[in-house]
């Protein structure tokens, strides 16, 4: 072996063999694929590559791109091809920066590939429809679903912010009917708070997928409380101011209250009786400012507000006579005729007392003078006159009215009328 290596001819032969082998290895990389003609170049395909539009998104809206996906054919030497295929941040770009609203056919450009490969896009162009953007301010509505725990009720949702901006193609902006957030309160025992993604809907309740909403997420809180209802607050006025004084005005700072309690109790509420005010205690000509607690009622758990502020103005009284106030009969039996026989006119003259400003407006038709004949038998009956007067107007002192009515059967009345006719 050592003798061979000392032989220069042998060394030359070995060097030649090694050189030939190295040449073969290097050129094997460049050997052509079958059918390539021996050029050392091959190709690969990438399918379903999405088209990326390049445009001013603050001004325009891309409605459609056809096709939205393309095929890339990449050609190059094996080493360059392998490198190109390993790239992940490539794209196919549709440059729309120099066109505006309308329909366009634009070339597609591969971006992000090395220079030593050739990239072919198929198809090489795309049809695009561009529209201008339009904005619309919309309130946020909350759709509360589910039923809270037994005995509780979902209150009015609180939304922050409660108005948002909807962006759509100008041709579709009028289709936006509402912007809604859905919140589920199923079996909730406490207020439900959450961040909710918004959706825009058309008049048929379908989601408008193209709508961009800013902000896209809002904070919603749905109070969970006892059942409640809002009803008028009615003060209980007792008595009248002393003689010579009258109420000129009574103003309360709230005329409604929210009442919380069992639903069956709330269903029966037409109004809520507030605190009592004894007008007989107001003995001076002045304005009274009262802060009164609104009293609780059986089974009512809460009343909001809990207080009512009342201002009452007391002034010196004036008097006025209302002449010819007609007497009205109530409680008549359909089988009888009833008429007033005393006074013969069926009317009275009534003196009333009140604050001058209120008294000036009172007319005869504002007063009811009532005779109640309920359950009375035929015959003559003397009855007290019940007076219904406008608020803060009272009957003048020293007046007691009575009237006589006659009740008769309708047949008797007809016979009597016939007898009178015969005598004539």
Automatic annotation (TrEMBL):
The chain crosses the membrane at residues 9-26. Keywords: Membrane, Transmembrane, Transmembrane helix. Pfam families: YbbR. Coiled coil: none annotated. InterPro entries: c-di-AMP_regulator, YbbR. PANTHER family: CDAA REGULATORY PROTEIN CDAR (PTHR37804:SF1). This is YbbR-like domain-containing protein YbbR. It comes from Paenibacillus rigui. The lineage of its organism: Bacteria, Bacillati, Bacillota, Bacilli, Bacillales.
């Amino acid at each position: 072996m050592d003798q061979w290596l000392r032989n220069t001819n042998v060394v030359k032969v070995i060097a030649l063999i090694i050189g030939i082998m190295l040449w073969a290895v290097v050129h094997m990389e460049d050997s052509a694929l079958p059918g390539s003609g021996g050029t050392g170049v091959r190709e690969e395909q990438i399918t379903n590559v999405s088209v990326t539009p390049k445009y001013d998104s603050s001004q325009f809206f891309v409605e459609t791109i056809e096709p939205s996906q393309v095929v890339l054919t990449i050609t190059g030497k094996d080493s360059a091809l392998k490198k190109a295929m390993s790239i992940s941040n490539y794209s196919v770009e549709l440059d729309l920066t120099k066109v505006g609203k309308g329909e366009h056919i634009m070339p597609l450009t591969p971006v992000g590939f090395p220079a030593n490969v050739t990239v072919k896009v198929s198809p090489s162009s795309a049809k695009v429809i561009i529209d201008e953007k339009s904005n619309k301010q919309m309130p946020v509505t909350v759709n509360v679903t589910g039923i809270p725990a037994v005995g509780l009720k979902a209150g009015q949702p609180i939304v922050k912010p409660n108005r948002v901006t909807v962006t759509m193609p100008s041709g579709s902006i009028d289709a936006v009917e509402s912007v809604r957030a859905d919140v589920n309160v199923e079996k909730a025992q406490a207020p439900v708070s959450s961040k909710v993604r918004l959706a825009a809907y058309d008049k048929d309740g379908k989601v408008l997928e193209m709508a961009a909403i800013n902000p896209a997420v809002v904070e919603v809180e749905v109070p969970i409380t006892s059942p409640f209802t809002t009803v008028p607050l009615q003060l209980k006025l007792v008595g009248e101011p002393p003689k010579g004084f009258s109420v000129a005005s009574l103003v309360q700072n709230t005329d409604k209250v929210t009442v919380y309690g069992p639903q069956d109790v709330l269903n029966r509420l037409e109004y809520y009786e507030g605190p009592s005010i004894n007008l007989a205690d107001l003995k001076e000509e002045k304005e009274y400012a009262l802060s009164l607690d609104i009293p609780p009622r059986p089974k009512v758990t809460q009343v909001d507000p809990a207080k009512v502020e009342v201002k009452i103005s007391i002034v010196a009284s004036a008097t006025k006579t209302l002449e010819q106030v007609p007497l009205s009969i109530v409680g008549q039996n359909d089988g009888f005729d009833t008429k007033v026989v005393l006074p013969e006119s069926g009317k009275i003259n009534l003196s009333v007392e009140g604050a001058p400003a209120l008294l000036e407006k009172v007319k005869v038709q504002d007063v009811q003078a009532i005779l109640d004949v309920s359950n009375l038998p035929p015959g003559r009956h003397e009855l007290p006159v019940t007076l219904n007067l406008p608020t803060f107007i009272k009957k003048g002192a020293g007046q007691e009215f009575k009237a006589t009515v006659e009740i008769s059967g309708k047949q008797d009345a007809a016979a009597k009328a016939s007898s009178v006719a015969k005598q004539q």
